[in-house]
């Protein structure tokens, strides 16, 4: 068991290195290249005028492909890390902030790669894979005792409902990270007319599609969470801050889904709501740092 | 949202106009957004109240202190404002649903098939095939392609033109109704649960005893067996109770429960929360008439004279006394110097205090198991020690409503999101060499819808062997590098 836990940690380390390299490659690819063309023209008076015109190109395609490959490695090693730890602990590794964040790293890189394939666009990676990488940085900074495999406190003892509840949360947050990236690129492309980025329509669609996965998952998180709370504490809903911050996030995305049906709001304003929604996700994720209450376990509070 | 009701006629009374206004307010998505956003704001305020955020705010900006104090004092989730916003949303959803269902039902079942040429020419996305086949042949191929892509196809001939309307996943349009109604049901479930449900926090059950749950239910619970194990320090480590639930006297469940592993019967759930001990005590008078025979639960109270010992008491009006029973202090880590009673295992300390109105003093004695001790005209017997279980019973008739709402919510969302409505309008008309087909997707600002449209166009292209003339909105170059499109139609304008 000791060996497996160690092996899992090495895989996590490999994953975080791959994701770092992948993020750098994606950023190099997405920032694009600018070439300034100078044209010298003779005027009728005999003098010459030099005009310069900036042209924008997509970044080096090699960097993009490299990014994808490395993101694949990152996801693969994260998968191994989760698997080994799962085998060692004999449960899905979701019980403390270390395990939760490790599985989140896996979810976010897998979710990103799915969107990359579906849309055939790599620029989102600059943001999503960077988030995955920052997640690994956070994991490195967690207290090292969380790296050990501990028995669970009774209220958390592995139950299918709890596993489903937490995994839904992880995948919901991962898809919201994708929609955040789409919203951010939308705003960048719009503001600076960054023509080498995917079209506004496509970015808007990616943001929306990601929410159409994340929103039902978040609904499931709330439902499964309340079933689990009922089994553990005897109440479905106790207005605990961790519950209500998830509810808040859910409502923000409900606002987003409605604004998209309003003509004037589709576009930048909806993209801003995606930014805000992801801030709410982070707030819910790291809520343990601010909240007391029933959910204050998992190694950090 | 289109509004089906707003046909203002000048002859309307002010009352009608007002109702119309309110109705239209509730139908408006704009108002719904404002309401949801306001609800979100309240939830955020309530959430932060449970955190240290306001506190650090007040520490940073002292003049915010009074505001922050009020913030902590305000129980948002139980406030009338919160309830009002929920009610407003529920009404809006109901009104909005009633308003929209007929129109959507109409477009599902009787869509307009005819498309004007102006509409076709004005669309920002379209594909035009110039073929040398007849209009009938072209209509046939087009229809076959659409059906292969699982579209429903409706045609109408007007003069020499054939109008074709095709759609897919039309019934999924209705998915938003169960979803939105589920939101109302969740509120209803919450209200029903709060109104008709209860949560019994302390429900003591000695081994061998049966007690009625009460609260208007016909349920009773019997504790058959209790088992506990202790850590070396003497704190309970694991415990489980085997219980039987009776409904109207009939046994309906027999199960072993432990903390975290409750048993449910219908909408009642029984939890094991704690454990304790009790003494079976009997009190008789001089003539041998039994005045009390039952279990005094010890452990819920502490005896003032001996703070660490588990104690309990019972009022016995027939005997005119309150009987307090104190059990030995067996917790090894309690301070021994506080244990003034020094009871041994199997012993109980008993104190009889006259009920109010008598001026007799209390009587105290230590009693062994199986012993009977006369005291002031009464005889107190200590038959045996029993264990009891502290159960909690939650009864929530809102559960079936929640269950239905959850299914509608997730199901409705899945249908709405994963079976999106796709529509294509087309006109087939005689053209320069034969017949011309112009097709337009009804997918304004819908990238995925347009992509699917171009996949259909590509399929038609390979079927007909004709390259279409394609119109795309500006800035949509990325259809080209989408791998899912087999051979993306290129612009040959
Ligand atoms: C907390 C309350 C609400 C939540 C969480 C909510 C959630 C949603 C969601 C997730 C969608 C997306 C479905 C889609 O994109 O097709 C949606 C659509 C919609 N909602 Fe709501 N909603 C709420 C309240 C309301 C209210 C009060 C109204 C009525 C005024 C309303 C009217 C609509 C309409 C018209 C659509 C578009 C449906 C369609 O495109 O077919 N919603 N809502």
Written overview of the protein:
The complex is a heterodimer of chains A (301) and B (493). Chain A is 67% helix and 7% strand. Chain A has 301 residues and is mostly helical. Chain A folds into 2 domains: 1-31 and 57-151, Four Helix Bundle (Hemerythrin (Met), subunit A) (Up-down Bundle), CATH 1.20.120; 163-301. In chain A, strand 1 and strand 2 (48-57) form a beta hairpin. Residues 293-301 of chain A have low confidence and may be disordered. In chain B, the strands form 4 sheets. Chain B has a 6-stranded antiparallel sheet with strand order 2-3-19-20-1-21. Chain B has 493 residues and is an alpha+beta fold. The two termini of chain B are 36 Å apart. Chain B is built from 10 helices and 21 strands. Chain B has 3 domains: 15-105, no CATH class; 115-169 and 423-478, 2-Layer Sandwich (Double Stranded RNA Binding Domain), CATH 3.30.160; 198-331 and 342-395, no CATH class. Chains A and B meet through helix 3, helix 6 and helix 7 of A and helix 2, helix 9 and helix 10 of B. The structure holds protoporphyrin IX containing FE.
Give a short overview.
The complex is a heterodimer of chains A (about 300) and B (about 500). Helices cover about 65% and strands about 5% of the residues of chain A.
List the helices and strands and how they pair.
The complex is a heterodimer of chains A (301) and B (493).
Chain A: H1 2-31, E1 33-42, E2 48-57, H2 61-89, H3 97-119, H4 125-141, H5 160-192, H6 200-233, H7 241-259, H8 268-285
Chain B: H1 14-27, H2 29-49, H3 53-60, H4 65-73, H5 80-109, H6 117-122, E1 126-131, H7 135-148, E2 152-158, E3 161-168, H8 176-196, E4 198-206, E5 210-212, E6 219-230, E7 236-247, E8 250-257, E9 263-265, E10 268-285, E11 290-298, E12 301-303, E13 306-316, E14 321-326, E15 347-354, E16 363-368, E17 372-375, E18 378-395, H9 399-418, E19 422-430, E20 435-441, H10 447-464, E21 469-471
Antiparallel strand pairs in B: 1-20, 1-21, 2-3, 3-19, 4-18, 5-6, 6-7, 7-8, 9-10, 10-11, 10-18, 12-13, 13-14, 14-15, 15-16, 17-18, 19-20
Helix pairs in contact in B: 1-5, 2-5, 3-4, 5-8, 7-10, 8-9
The structure holds protoporphyrin IX containing FE.
Protoporphyrin IX containing FE sits between chains B (1, 27, 29, 32, 36, 89, 92-93, 96, 176, 180, 183, 416) and A (215, 254, 257-258, 261).
């Amino acid at each position: 068991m000791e060996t497996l836990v160690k092996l899992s940690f090495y895989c996590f380390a490999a994953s975080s290195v791959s994701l770092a390299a992948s993020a750098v490659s994606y950023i190099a690819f997405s920032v694009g290249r600018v070439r300034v063309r100078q044209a010298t023209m003779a005027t009728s008076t005999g003098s010459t005028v030099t005009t310069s015109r900036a042209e924008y190109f997509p970044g080096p395609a090699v960097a993009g492909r490299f990014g994808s490959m490395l993101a694949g490695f990152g996801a693969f090693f994260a998968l191994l890390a989760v698997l080994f730890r799962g085998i060692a602990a004999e449960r899905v590794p979701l019980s403390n902030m270390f395990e939760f964040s490790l599985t989140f790293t896996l979810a976010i890189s897998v979710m990103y790669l799915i969107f990359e394939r579906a849309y055939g666009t790599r620029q989102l990676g600059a943001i999503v894979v960077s988030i995955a990488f920052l997640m690994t940085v956070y994991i490195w900074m967690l207290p090292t005792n969380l790296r050990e495999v501990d028995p669970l406190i009774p209220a958390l003892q592995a139950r299918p409902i709890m596993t489903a509840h937490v995994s839904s949360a992880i995948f919901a947050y991962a898809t919201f990270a994708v929609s955040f990236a789409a919203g951010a690129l939308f705003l960048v492309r719009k503001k600076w007319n960054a023509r080498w980025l995917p079209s506004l329509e496509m970015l808007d669609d990616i943001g929306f599609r990601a929410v159409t996965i994340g929103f039902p998952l978040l609904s499931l998180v709330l439902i499964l969470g309340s079933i689990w709370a009922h089994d553990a504490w005897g109440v479905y809903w106790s207005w605990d801050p961790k519950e209500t911050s998830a509810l808040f996030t859910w409502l923000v995305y409900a606002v987003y889904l409605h604004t998209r049906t309003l003509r004037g709001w589709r576009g930048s304003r909806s993209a801003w709501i995606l930014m805000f929604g992801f801030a709410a996700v982070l707030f819910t994720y790291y809520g343990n740092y601010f909240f007391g209450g029933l959910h204050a376990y998992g190694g950090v509070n | 949202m289109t509004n089906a009701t707003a046909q203002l006629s000048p002859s309307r009374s002010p009352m009608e106009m007002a109702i119309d206004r309110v109705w239209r307010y509730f139908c408006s998505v704009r108002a719904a957004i404002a309401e949801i956003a306001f609800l979100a704001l309240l939830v955020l305020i309530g959430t932060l109240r449970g955190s240290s955020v306001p506190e650090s705010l007040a520490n940073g900006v002292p003049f915010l202190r009074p505001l922050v104090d009020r913030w902590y004092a305000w129980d948002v989730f139980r406030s009338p404002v919160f309830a009002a916003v929920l009610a407003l949303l529920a009404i809006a959803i109901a009104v909005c649903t009633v308003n929209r269902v007929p129109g959507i039902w109409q477009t599902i079942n009787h869509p307009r098939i005819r498309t004007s040429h102006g509409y076709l020419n004005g669309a920002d996305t379209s594909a035009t095939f110039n073929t040398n086949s007849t209009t009938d042949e072209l209509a046939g191929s087009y229809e076959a392609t659409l059906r292969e892509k699982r579209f429903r196809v409706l045609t109408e001939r007007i003069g020499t033109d054939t109008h074709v309307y095709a759609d897919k996943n039309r019934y999924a349009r209705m998915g938003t109704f169960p979803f939105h109604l589920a939101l109302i049901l969740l509120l209803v479930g919450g209200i029903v649960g709060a109104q008709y449900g209860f949560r019994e926090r302390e429900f003591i059950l000695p081994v061998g005893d049966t007690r009625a749950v009460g609260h208007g239910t016909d349920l009773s619970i019997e504790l058959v067996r209790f088992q506990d194990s202790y850590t070396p320090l003497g704190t309970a480590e694991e415990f489980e109770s085997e219980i039987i639930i009776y409904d109207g006297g009939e046994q309906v469940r027999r199960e072993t429960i432990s903390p975290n592993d409750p048993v449910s019967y219908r909408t009642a759930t029984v939890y094991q929360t704690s454990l304790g001990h009790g003494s079976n005590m009997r009190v008789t008078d001089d003539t041998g008439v039994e005045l009390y025979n039952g279990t005094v639960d010890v452990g819920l109270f502490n005896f003032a004279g001996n703070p660490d010992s588990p104690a309990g008491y019972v009022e016995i009006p027939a005997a005119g006394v309150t009987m307090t029973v104190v059990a030995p202090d067996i917790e090894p880590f309690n301070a021994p110097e506080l244990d003034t009673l020094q009871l041994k295992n199997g012993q109980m300390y008993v104190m009889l205090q006259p009920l109010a109105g008598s001026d007799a003093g209390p009587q105290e004695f230590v009693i062994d198991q199986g012993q009977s001790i006369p005291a002031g005209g009464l005889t107190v017997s200590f038959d045996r020690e029993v264990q009891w279980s502290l159960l909690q019973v939650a009864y929530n008739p809102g559960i079936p409503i929640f269950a239905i709402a959850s299914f509608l919510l997730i199901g409705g969302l899945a249908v709405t999101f994963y079976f999106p409505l796709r529509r294509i309008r087309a006109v087939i008309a005689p053209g320069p060499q034969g017949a011309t087909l112009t097709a337009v997707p009804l997918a304004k600002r819908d990238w995925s819808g347009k992509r699917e449209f171009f996949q259909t166009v590509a399929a038609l292209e390979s079927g007909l062997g004709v390259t279409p003339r394609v119109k795309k909105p500006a800035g949509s170059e990325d259809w080209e590098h989408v791998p899912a499109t087999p051979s993306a139609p290129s612009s040959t304008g």
